[in-house]
Amino acid sequence: MTRHALLPSTCLALAMLLRPSLSEAQMTATYLAYGARGAPGTSSNTYFVNWPVSLSECAANAPVEVQLQNAPLAVGTSLTFALWRSSGGGTSPTQCQMGANRSGANPPCTRVETFAQPMLTAVNQLVSIPPQVFFDADCSRSGDLVFFLMAMSSPTDIASDVPASNFVTLRIALDREAPGAPTVSDGAGDASTTVSWTNPSDTGTLYGARLYVDTGGTCGSGDGGAADSTLRPGGPPPSTATVTVTGGSPTSASVNLSTLGLDYGESVPVAVTLVDLARNESVLSNVACLTRVQVEGFWSAYCRENGLSGEECRARYGGCSASPRARSRGLLAALVFVALGVLGRRALRTRGGA
Predict the structure, then answer these.
(1) Phi-psi bin for 30: left (phi > 0), alpha (psi -120 to 50), beta?
(2) Which of 93, 262, 336, 343 has its CA 20 to 30 Å from the CA of residue 277?
């Protein structure tokens, strides 16, 4: 039996026949940049409570931009977008695209809003939805909510099923609660130091932390805390953050002490807040202190322990405070001198034994 390879044109024709038609493609959606967060760049099928809206954002009612892809697939189609709410919520929403769930005496789906969209494009259709459409005018509908955004020939059609190409599931949450405040430890360093803190166990998912340093404040004498500072434990954060750390649940951050204008021995108060994914910020932590200390080098410590002044040290060893190259030359000379002395003593012993 002779086998014949399919011609390229035949393969292409089969691929065109077997692939899903554009009219059957599933509509997808992406939440775009909102507030100070930046674009999450994730599909609405996987993005949900990982990027919630804060209470302040809901109160401001700045629109949430939703970009639709691959729907309604016909340039110039005259359809209207309608937003329906699912009573199921959470991860098991009622399928509002089914006409049976939008009709009847007590349907599990309710129409929330109708958007004026007289002309639609095939891809990247942008729909702006104010948060109060999701959460009511007083932002009282909190929690994890599921919505269905559907392109419909008539928004009052409650009996017909909506095809996959004309609807997308949106899930969004209103996060009212800020995380708890962390517990901060004192820190010390030369040019920089690390501020460390312990996060409370009930913070949930964090976006990051913010450090506040009061450069005009003073610290207590040896017991940590602030003697005089605008930072107050449990109080509101100042308007300007010195350092912002993002990513997961951070527990430390580096602070450049030299740029704060601190002399050696001087301290400044510091406090930390935690920020969740909705950008709710906690109250201030306890107030700790950052102290700039001079880190002593090897030669400086050696000379001090042997009672040598700086001038004596430089004269004997090539300089404790000289350049590294000079110190290296002095150390090398000392090592060579010791080695020659050892070799000389061995030579004398050898001669004496002979």
Answers:
(1) beta
(2) 93
- What are the helix (H) ranges across 110-241? 131-135
CA distance 155 to 137: 22
Cβ-in-10-Å burial (0-12, 13-18, 19+) of 104 comes to exposed
> φ, ψ for residue 131 (rounded to 5)?
-55, -30
Residue 353 lies in a domain: no
Q: Is the pLDDT of residue 6 over 70?
A: no
The token duo for 324 is: 């590294």
* Strand (E) or helix (H) holding 344: helix 324-353
Contact 111, 82 (CB under 8 A): yes
- With a CB cutoff of 8 Å and minimum separation 6, the contacts of 137 are none
Which of 126, 151, 175 corresponds to the end of one domain? 175
- The answer to whether residue 6 is domain-embedded is no
Tally Cβ neighbours within 10 Å of residue 266: 15
As a whole-number percent, the residues of the chain with pLDDT over 70 amount to 67
- Same domain flag for 148 and 274: no
Domain range for 149 is 20-175
Does 215 lie in the same domain as 336?
no
- Using CA atoms, how far apart are residues 283 and 154, in angstroms rounded to an integer? 49
Q: Are strands 243-246 and 167-175 parallel, antiparallel or unpaired?
A: unpaired
In a domain, 348, yes or no: no
H-type helices in 19-177, by residue range? 55-60, 131-135
**Token pair belonging to 25:** 């493609």
19: left (phi over 0), alpha (psi -120 to 50) or beta: beta
Q: Tell me the whole-structure pTM to 2 decimals.
A: 0.64
Domain count, the chain: 3
pLDDT, tens digit (0-9, with 9 covering 90-100), for 268-316: 999 999 988 788 899 999 999 999 888 766 666 677 677 776 677 767 6
